């Protein structure tokens, strides 16, 4: 069964989290943030392949996180006076979960993936 990866329009992403998605050569969309401690977080997502990659790099250039996952079903963005968030839902039939990324006021990543 084919499932669609639903993502908001670029304008909605900019409005909610203050970052405009760039387009990579492959067609994937790319978002980047710099943390207050000199670290950086890059999120790329490809609607056609329903895939997501999150890479978090420390200020010294060491990779803290490199996560790649397929089966993405929905990407949402939200913001409040205290935080800006990206949430990505996954469903592969056997497993379901969510990746939550906070981009302000500080960077954080929370990931859950469970058998259904």
Please list the strands of the largest sheet in the order they lie side by side: 1-2-3-4-5
Strand content: over 45%
The chain-level mean pLDDT equals 94
SSE pattern, N- to C-terminal = HEEEEEEEEE
The strand count comes to: 9
* N-to-C CA distance: 16 Å
Low-confidence stretches: none
- The secondary structure category is mainly beta
Oligomer: single chain
Largest sheet: 5 strands, antiparallel
- How many H/I helical runs? 1
Relative helix content: under 10%
Radius of gyration (Å): 14 Å
Overall geometry: globular
SSE diagram, text form:
Layout: H1 10-17, E1 22-23, E2 29-34, E3 40-46, E4 51-57, E5 63-70, E6 72-79, E7 84-91, E8 95-104, E9 108-115
Antiparallel strand pairs: 1-2, 2-3, 3-4, 4-5, 6-7, 7-8, 8-9
